[in-house]
Amino acid sequence: MADKVILLDFWPSPFGVRARIALREKGVEFEYREENLRDKSPLLLQMNPVHKKIPVLIHNGKPVCESMNVVQYIDEVWSDKNPILPSDPYQRAQARFWVDFVDTKLYEPADKIWQTKGEEQETAKKEYIEALKILESELGDKPYFGGDTFGFVDIAMTGYYSWFEASEKLANFSIEPECPTLMASAKRCLQRESVVKSLHDSEKILAFAYKIRKIYCV
């Protein structure tokens, strides 16, 4: 019996795109179901009753929630192709540490960049760049956080990479002069086939970001 894989998602989500990328890296066929987050489907509420958030991967009727938990599940279930997490236990632990850093230190300032203005936005930009510089230091001269291979931390970061251009335009700042090595890795990630197939056009993301900003910053 063939696997039945459904992904409940929302197209501009930097978290949902992680699951899309991981599935495509593994060559897994899946049914994509777009969610309206203002009117969540009964299936989403049934499959993620705790957080009621996307992405939710439904594998043969069983739900897996939280984006990087979903990515790890995909890596373990479809382990015969393109490993996402390293095989070495220490390197796996390090990858999980940096993913936690990404979502702990990047999410809040990234959110505030396009939801605030004035002094609050300036503070958010500074915090965002500071976190990116720490990540750039960890990246070093490697092409990817996973070394020579696109991996767990790269997938986590690609969600943020997809919003870099919109964030820069909304808040009138530039990331590349501050983090040139990180930006080079970002561009490399954004050119991967699995990523290209998973992301929408940057202009569409920008239009969505302006729409959100209009709601929060009249």
Strand and helix order: EHEHEEHHHHHHHH
Total helical segments: 10
The order of strands across the largest sheet is 2-1-3-4
DSSP, total strands: 4
Shape: globular
Portion of residues in beta strands equals: 5-15%
Termini separation (Å)? Answer: 53 Å
Computed over alpha carbons, the radius of gyration is 17 Å
Q: Helix fraction?
A: 55-70%
Average pLDDT over all residues = 95
SS-derived structural category: alpha+beta
Instruction: Note poorly predicted spans.
Output: none
The largest sheet is: 4 strands, mixed
Keywords summarizing the entry:
218 residues, alpha+beta, 4-stranded mixed β-sheet, 10 helices, 57% helix, 8% strand, globular
List strands and helices in order, with pairings.
Blueprint: E1 5-9, H1 16-26, E2 31-34, H2 42-47, E3 56-59, E4 62-65, H3 67-77, H4 89-105, H5 107-113, H6 118-139, H7 152-171, H8 180-190, H9 193-196, H10 202-216
Parallel strand pairs: 1-2
Antiparallel strand pairs: 1-3, 3-4
Helix pairs in contact: 1-3, 1-7, 4-7, 5-6, 7-8, 7-10
Please, could you describe this protein's structure?
This protein has 218 residues and is an alpha+beta fold. Helix content is 57%, strand content 8%. The chain contains ten helices and four strands, in the order βαβαββαααααααα. A hairpin with a 2-residue loop joins strand 3 and strand 4. The longest helix has 22 residues. The N and C termini lie far apart (53 Å).
